[in-house]
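Continued from yesterday's entry.
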Amino acid sequence: MKLYQLHSKQALPITRHEAWQFLSDPANLKVITPKHMGFNILTGADREMFPGQIIQYKVSPFPGFTTKWVTEITHVAQGSYFVDEQRFGPYALWHHKHFIKEIDNGVEMEDIIDYKLPLGILGQIAHPILVKKQLQEIFSFREQKLQELFGSIADIPTQLEFKSF
């Protein structure tokens, strides 16, 4: 069983409050997800984020394949971090921590995603060919979209790193 981790950091020239307002609203996931993924929230995004919140999505991670994805918001520290965990969907495990911290001239957003693929050895073969590539594309799109919306802090590059255990 292989466990993977994606670690991303991005700096934005906005306040912690502005970052929290945007990132803690599940409806904004559609804004920062590539359109070709057909991402749509079905239920659960109609109120402010809270621990225990269940959100259901429909997504097409690959052409010709559409699935439901159900996540639970398990932890929330207002203005600082939240955690979502997959309850049903395309991964065998998905645990996504979102952190927001103040830095000079803005905030740093940090994401740490621990995930496991289904299908054993087939999932491990698919990781470098499909999954890792797609996650890189999603986070690249997200970086660009957030820069369009909020600007960037030029001297702090975005970081994206993958590990496996």
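--- second protein ---
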Amino acid sequence: MSFASPRRPLALGVLSAAGLMTILDGSIVTVAMPAIQRDLGFSPAGLSWIVNAYLVAFGGLLLLAGRLGDLIGRKKMFLAGNAVFTAASVLAGVADGQGLLIAARFGQGVGSAMASSVVLGILVTLFTEERERGKAIAVFAFTGAAGASLGQVLGGVLTDLLDWHWIFLINLPIGLLTIALAIPALPRDRGLGLAAGADVAGAALVTSGLMLGIYTVVKVEEHGWLSAHTLGLGAVSLALLAGFVVRQATAGTPLMPLRVLRSRNVAGGNLVQMLALSAMFAFQILVALYMQRVLGYGALETGLAMLPAAVAIGAISLFVSARLSARYGARAVLLGGLLMLLAAMLWLARVPVNAGYVIDLLPVMVLVAGGGLVLPALTTLGMSGAREDDAGLASGLFNTTQQIGMALGVAVLSTLAASRTEQLLGEGESRAAALTGGYHLAFATSAGLLAAAVLVALTVLRRPGDARAVTAEHDGEVSLAS
């Protein structure tokens, strides 16, 4: 890959490394959670907060952090976020109690939100030529697409060979190196200034609404969908978010100018992302649980079993995705990837209790390579309508829908699997058969979510020939869409 400026490859490497660290942190804990539970004495409900504390902070702060990056400077926000994330990782790595670990995970979420919210904004302003931008997005998306599976592999290796503390401590050298390289590599930007968009009321509404909404969703498994807790907090969250939308339509300097959503590809791409990532949780998390709880795999075995998926996703996103997008357009590539993921979920929905790896699981590891097509295409579409001064905001929005999708996947699919398992146990099924039946329902639901994502992509997203020039009604600008 050749870029005009010698600093841009280094900048791309720094941004990709930061993205990889964030994605890894979201998945690396999966296979280590049984060891953490044994060591620190977590209850099942308390154990879920190792993931939930991170999701609440990350998803709740992304939009605010993205806009602040536009205002104070994206490089400053990126460096500060990596510093917070690295420090919180050290705290998590030395934690000897439940409270400290959960607090450190929340801190990691805050740092991830600060850094991740501006990464795509920096990337699209660095690479302005369409072909180079496509290559850069493919490299960046490679880290995201493969990172989740690599996290499970690395988590299994570190947990078995060392102990679970190292899944967090490994972030220290990576974080310090990222900060050291980012200082000379990333372009200096002063930002627009706080006066250009310091919407304090809007920030309070969207941050509290998102945090409360994600908290409500991740607690569904404990309280149920129709409980007073879920319905009450859900209603408050929706009211806060509705108030935020009203505020953005009337504020002189809105936190999120609604013009960002006028692009069909931006709005549709974010919706497809929520649906797809909700479904992909079934692969990232539930397949690992199925291997350990039903097939009896250890942490290292589970990580190695997931390795073909990481390799396939990485190879597709890095070497194939950009070429296909250049030839057929991001929309066509997205549809192809979604159909591959749909086939993978349908295959998992029939996996037996005594599955053989080669016959029953390896084909899934190949089919999920569709994720290497989906994520780069969504990144292109999700950033396609953003002006340069809104790039951090669009990046924050794109990352926010990622976290909302993951949180919904955690709540909906875990709850469905657990409920079905309890039902089958009550009917006299063995524990292994009951667990498998629960996972079958979750995988079938994931297939339904992916089918919905295909429908949205077909009906909302623009065809390549129609998306070259999109008129922004509010500004009269022309923005490139893929």
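The chain has a mean pLDDT of 79. The radius of gyration is 21 Å. Will compare against the first tomorrow.
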